[in-house]
Amino acid sequence: MKITFKSEANAEAIAYLGFEGSAIPASAKAADEASQNALSKAAEAARFEGKAGQIVEVLAPAGSNASRILIVGLGKEDKADDRTYENAGASLVKKLLVSGAKSLDIVGVEAGQASARLALGARLASYRFDNYRTTLKDDAKPTLSEVGVVGASTKDAEAAWVRLSATAEGTELARDLVNEPPNTLHPESYAERIKELEALGLEVEVLDEPAMAKLGMGSLLGVGQGSVKGSRLVVMKWNGGKDKDAAPLALVGKGVTFDTGGISLKPGLNMQDMKGDMGGSAAVVGAMKSIATRKAKANVVGLVGLVENMPDGNAIRPGDILTSAAGKTIEIQNTDAEGRLVLVDVLWYAQEKHKPRAIIDLATLTGAILVALGDEHAGVFSNNDEFAAQIDAAGKAEGETVWRMPLSSTYDKQIDSDFADMRNMGGPLAGSATAAQFLGRFIENDTPWAHLDIAGVAWRSGKNRPMEAGWASGFGPRLLDRIVADNFED
Known about the structure:
This is Probable cytosol aminopeptidase. This protein is α/β, with parallel strands linked by helices.
């Protein structure tokens, strides 16, 4: 989708935005007069009141160079925020994407930030994953390829768009990765795909199984040992800060490219969705692309553990004891509680090799988080109140919201083991909290740390979410980039 900021509307389709309370948007009055009140008559007939989400489409009347005109409601002016403009831009694109119109201009917003948010909504709503579709009919193929945002503050809009367009690229990459089928996106091919980001200036290092075995990563390697695909640990480094040696922010992602559950086999119903069990890693990879694309003035390192959890004769079993890179032993209660086994070795490596100033890990870790929060918020667990507040603020600013959940030593008894230092599952109660408590045992020296359980938000229905096409949401890059921009840049 090509995005431009301009001072005059001249597209095939023109949309006029207005707030609640007017019979027709102020931005459309000149066009209405030129059409001998055809627009206001259409708005009246459609009972248009300017409420958020209202759209009236009119075949362009005489005197207009456009082929169609749309009147769009933004809701109450005093309630307008970034989401208002994003959703307006997204709703318009969804309406016109396969309509036959090739270009759209949006009129009615003067502020540069609001214009950029309109553009972001339009860009993300245009996302499609048609890579494997060979029989799409012409009328189902996208036609809309260009969106212009018309306003006086084009320079301000372009300046705001620099960061937002970078986050859009990261979000689109995250969606692509989560949508890919597991026969094409497995640990080895995934690592190769991440290597392509070196073109943006990222330093990318890939550790294979022998390298991880030498480091003692028995926990991560244990998860992948039932697969014919070799596990990988990929490190993406961005040194954009003034002090290149300053401690970075570490972003850690779970990358289980397919999760059968292993020997503790999952039910067959909806198992195909387990191709998305690498959503945490996709968030990190997408964020690193965003950070590198906009040349962020920060030191950030992204680390993803890539494995496939399969049930063959070499797979780990319930009752096995694995030794992590940190030297701590883990009794396997259930091989389907595998994501935390991957993460702890990556968390150890992040701390051992990069000495980060703070750590955020993201994972589609537990079904229990869906029970608690549904698909509206990611759960955040943190050992640091200030860091948790920064993440919460960034989530609200970008519309990728989190909800703080408890960490407590009272959960430790659920993951203590009679045979090892700990066990990988705490039982049926407080499943998300015990998983986070397990990860917290591997955080050293009181390093500020947050665990984001994104199992409820990494894939979901696009219904009532104008910027999402459905299934892979691309959750994470916008949130992580905003955390960096607000708290870790020079």
